[in-house]
Specification:
Structural class: alpha/beta
Order of helices and strands: EHEHEHEHEHEHEHEHHHEEEHHHHH
Radius of gyration: 20 Å
Number of domains: 3
CATH superfamily of the largest domain: NAD(P)-binding Rossmann-like Domain
Distance between the termini: 52 Å
CATH architecture of the largest domain: 3-Layer(aba) Sandwich
Amino acid sequence: MKNVVIFGSTGSIGVNTLKVIKALKNKFKVVGLSVNSNIDLLKEQIDEFQPEAVVISDVNKAVEVKSKKIKVLAGEEGLVELAAYKKADIVVMAIGNCSALKPLLAAIDAKKRIALANKESLVSAGRIVLERARSKGVDIVPIDSEHSAIFQCISGQDKKSIRNIYLTGTGGPLRKMPASKMHLVSPQQAIKHPKWAMGKKISVDSATMMNKGLEVIEAKWLFGLPVEKIKILIHPQAVVHSMVEYIDGSVIAQMGVTDMRLPIQYALTYPERFDSGLAALNFTDIKRLDFFKPNFKKFPSLELAYKAARQDGTMPCVLNAANEELVKLYLDGKIKLTEIAKGVDKIMKDHKVVNNPKLEEIFESDSWARERVKGCYR
């Protein structure tokens, strides 16, 4: 029996993680949950899973949860404390943006296994996170379907034998939208993903393909590969979740049904596998598998992400922070979809890169980029 702490338990990854744990109830026990402000759903989760501790990031909401049976924590200090919870074996990190960075490092310092669904922490501070994990002997197992696929495909292989890795993506809701009409796309159109049910922010990132660009940077750190070996392929069917090409010409692909419970379960059970109870992939139903090169001109966020990955230092952090603020403006109807990439490009050009940054410099760059966006769009 492994004890699990879930950060972001009311989000889509958190909810699906709880479904996996419920299905494998003889193998896992929930000992801690964290949410931002969704108190109603948290209370339901507390009743069902009986954790020992919970954290509410929104300090003002924390007073709404009172219990003599569980420990109620709040704010950033609460997140850090829960990350190092003594009874926890596995920490599922599924909260967004750089707010995950401090609790993630705390969990690593406490030598917990990390099931990682927060790409922003690796985008912004990949070197710091991976060096800390190596020094502590901590496994970081990715939950993102693409990175889980790569993780599975390279298992037991010599990294030197990898020619390329291919991160697949559906192309998002705007794959067939003419480039000339991208500026007319409404938030309602942008968040309507053809395959995955996700939050608004990540859905917009899928529409601009910034999400795939961030995945390139995440893969760079997770697998220790130069960005030149990390390719993107548009694959509308979402059957092949990613692939690894080796120097002998062999290609190993990971395939499966489109269900986030699969990579979540593997992150929890690694290196073992158990019956998920999910429907198997029916190959006779698959009529075709299409693969296309991404359109960098139509989706300029991809080129910006590769540029940030090559420049390294604090630039990926600035890319991520600027994009988050611009997506908020777009969802609020204050800018057009095409202005997101233009705004990120401007902030990146204004930034003076700090090479090999310390953690404090990462946070400073994150704050600088956010304030710079706000100043430009007042």
